[in-house]
Specification:
This protein is of the alpha/beta class and 509 residues long. The chain has 17 helices and 18 strands. The protein binds zinc ion.
């Protein structure tokens, strides 16, 4: 029997991006959206266009540039939000407007200060307004799991009457439990007028660690769209993790009569790219994408694995894209091979960008014998897809020894002029940071400093992320280099540039 499809609605760029430390600039969002298209998600929720000019531009460009998935924009249930969402998504081939209003008494009373009748009225008008623009309208009842079921069914029936084609049931505060949630979905399928014409969707938060379990329970009860994020990023404890839902449906196909269209061997790559862009690493024991998720350390397990893989492995690492660190290029690879590999990875670079990337590649190949796909990703993200920068690290020299005090000499181009400074510090990184602060005049504080290796081996590229804070704004920067002190300086300068970009960007509401 043909399996039914569960749509994967990816909200990494909207709900995920809203969480602390995960903000992305426009080029980073487009890079991530391109990878989501390769992963073959059904819908990309690209942002909340009314929230700021930056969000609007990002949604618009994703709608213009990304082929494949439907592109959705979020809007509260009012005409202004919906108009703005439409202005941004209308460039896509399959635009979706996603409008929402809260339905729980607690939200009605304290947040919206509206009666149940007013919310019914707003629901009808919002959906009908969106429907004038596009046939693909999704309606969400915020805090659905803490709403009165009968009233919820009434709101959803109203949304269907006004033309909604997807009804989303969010567990906004991560409160529900699998058994309860599947009963709610079954109840709604029974009691919403016109339920047979529409798709039920779920959007679960992970406050009790149940987002994936709740989403799967809903699928069992007939939900056919799951809203989720790569690595489960999102506010507080995060959203439902895309990779866990997708792989459970695959591995336990005996239990589910449905599947997704996800290209599973793109999962790890998507996870890594997101970590790389946001600087937020995945915990090592995270299911599917954590560094240890396929490592068998205990003697008993290792013995079993050697005898037969299936003794302890329920899925292969290859099926989710692990061990795809193919050796692609080395020091002697030419421009042609380099360009071909980048094209295969989904990058279309202009001639100027290609030259810039090729120079960076040559430098990297000098430092590192083997250049892997992951290294190339880093290189392109680092060198090409960034916006115009105010500061550029020109040179960094450090001196450090057991007897001498660590010293750093730094040269930075600031607004076109090269300035230099030399300072000592507690260690070479500290000295370099002090010199950068002096040259750029940055007075804020350094909140976090993190080092990770991107690929294996002692010549692995180091990836450093730093978070700085100035006048209440927290900004993160990342830098990569085979030398971690260089990577640290690049990360610090990157953070300063991002701070400048945020300052320049006029925010909306
Ligand atoms: Zn959410």
């Amino acid at each position: 029997m043909e399996k039914e499809m569960v749509k994967i609605f990816d909200t990494t760029l909207r709900d995920g991006e809203q969480s602390p430390g995960c903000s992305m600039d426009i080029n980073e969002k487009i890079r991530m959206a391109r990878q989501l298209a390769k992963l073959n998600v059904d819908i990309i929720e690209a942002g909340f266009p009314v929230a700021s000019q930056g969000d609007f531009e990002a949604v618009k460009r994703i709608a213009q540039e990304i082929e494949g998935p439907a592109i959705a924009g979020l809007a509260r249930a009012n005409p202004h939000d919906i108009d703005r969402a439409w202005e941004a998504v209308k460039y896509g081939k399959r635009p979706r407007i996603h409008t929402f209003i809260a339905t729980s008494d607690i939200h009605l009373e304290y947040k919206l200060k509206k009666s149940r009748e007013q919310v019914l009225d707003d629901t009808f008008h919002a959906v009908a307004h969106a429907k004038k623009y596009t046939p693909d309208v999704e309606f969400s009842a915020e805090d659905a799991t803490r709403s009165d079921w009968e009233y919820l069914a009434q709101v959803f029936s109203t949304a269907v009457e006004a033309g909604a084609t997807t009804l989303n049931v969010p567990d906004t505060v991560g409160y529900t439990y699998p058994d309860e949630f599947s009963r709610l979905i079954a109840y709604l399928k029974q009691n919403v007028k016109g339920a047979e014409k529409i798709i039920f969707s779920v959007h679960c938060h992970n406050d009790l660690g149940l987002a994936v379990a709740n989403s799967l329970a809903a699928v069992k009860a007939g939900a056919r769209q799951v809203e989720c994020t790569v690595n489960g990023i999102g506010e507080r404890a995060g959203n439902c993790s895309m990779e866990e839902v997708v792989m459970t449906l695959k591995v336990r196909k005996d239990l589910f009569d449905c599947d997704t269209r996800i290209v599973t061997d793109q999962i790890c790559h998507s996870s890594k790219l997101l970590s790389l862009i946001t600087g937020v690493a995945v915990q090592p024991n995270k299911a599917i994408v954590g560094a240890n998720s396929f490592a068998h350390e205990s003697g008993i397990h290792q013995d079993g694995i050697l005898k037969h893989k299936m003794t302890y492995e329920i899925m292969t690492p290859e099926s989710v894209g692990w061990s795809k660190h193919k050796l692609v290029l080395g020091k002697h690879s030419g421009r042609h091979a380099f360009r071909t590999r980048l094209t295969e990875l989904g990058y279309q670079l202009s001639q100027v960008e290609l030259e810039k990337a090729f120079d960076a590649f040559k430098k990297l190949a000098d430092l590192k014998k083997e250049v892997f796909d992951d290294d190339l990703e880093v290189l392109v993200t680092d060198e090409i897809t960034r916006g115009p920068d105010r500061f550029e690290l020109v040179d960094l020299r450090v001196q450090s020894g057991t007897k001498s005090k660590p010293k750093a000499k730094v040269k930075i181009r600031c607004d076109g002029k090269v300035k230099s400074g030399e300072l000592t510090g507690g260690g070479p990184v500290d000295a370099a940071f002090k010199a950068i602060r002096k040259i750029t005049g940055f007075k804020g504080e350094l909140l976090k400093y993190n080092v990770a290796a991107i690929t294996g081996g002692t010549d692995a590229q180091g990836e450093v992320s730093v978070t700085i804070k100035d006048k209440g704004r927290e900004v993160r920067g990342v830098g990569t280099h085979a030398d971690i002190i260089q990577a640290s300086a690049k990360a610090y300068v990157n953070a300063l540039n991002r701070l400048e970009n945020f300052r320049k960007k006029k925010e909306g509401i």
